[in-house]
Amino acid sequence: MCESAHHMKKLRDNLIQKHTPLPIISLDPIVAEIDSYMKLDVVCVDVLEFRRSSGDQFYHLKRLAQIILGIPVTSTPSEEVFSTTGLILNAKRTALAPENVGKIQMIHDNYELL
Q1: Residue 104: domain span
Q2: Are residues 89 and 107 both part of a single domain?
Q3: With contact defined as beta carbons under 8 Å apart, do 63 and 34 qualify?
Q4: Do both 65 and 80 map to the same domain?
Q5: How many domains is the chain built from?
Q6: How far is CA 38 from CA 32, 58, 111, in A?
Q7: Which of 8, 56, 62, 103 is the most exposed place for a label (fewest CB within 10 A)?
């Protein structure tokens, strides 16, 4: 019985070793940057302060944050576009081509710059 148990344990260890994924060693700088960031043990409430203090250590993550955090959290800009388009397309202007509606919309939105 002891020899059978030893054989089963060895078989189990071989199976575990065979099916355990190897650590991913990547030469990709973005993956390395994310891995470096995930290993940080920093408690920082102010995101901007963390970005200033980390400098250019996390360049790709900084760019990603700029893109994501630049997205407006409200639908107000799109609602303004629909409202203005509703004013442009009235009963007398139903035959306007889409590109002309776009041009009128741009003039309306940028009128103060003229």
Answers
A1: 76-113
A2: yes
A3: no
A4: no
A5: 2
A6: 10, 11, 47
A7: 56
Say if residue 26 is exposed, middle or buried (CB neighbours under 10 Å; 0-12, 13-18, 19+).
exposed
Distance in angstroms (rounded) separating the CA atoms of residues 42 and 24: 24
Residue 105 lies in a domain: yes
Mean pLDDT for 20-37 is 76
Confidence of residue 51 (pLDDT cuts 50, 70, 90): confident
Task: Find, among 61, 65, 44, 63, the residue nearest to 53 by Cα.
Answer: 44
Of 44 and 99, more confident: 99
Q: Considering the domain boundaries, does residue 2 fall inside one?
A: no
Both 30 and 65 in one domain: the answer is yes
Q: Find the length of the chain.
A: 114
39 and 18 in a single domain? The answer is yes
Q: Which helix (H) or strand (E) holds 103?
A: helix 98-109
Give the span between the Cα atoms of 80 and 1, in whole angstroms: 80
Q: Is position 25 within any domain? A: yes
CA distance linking residue 61 with residue 67, whole number of Å: 10
Categorize the per-residue pLDDT at 22 as very low, low, confident or very high, splitting at 50, 70 and 90: low
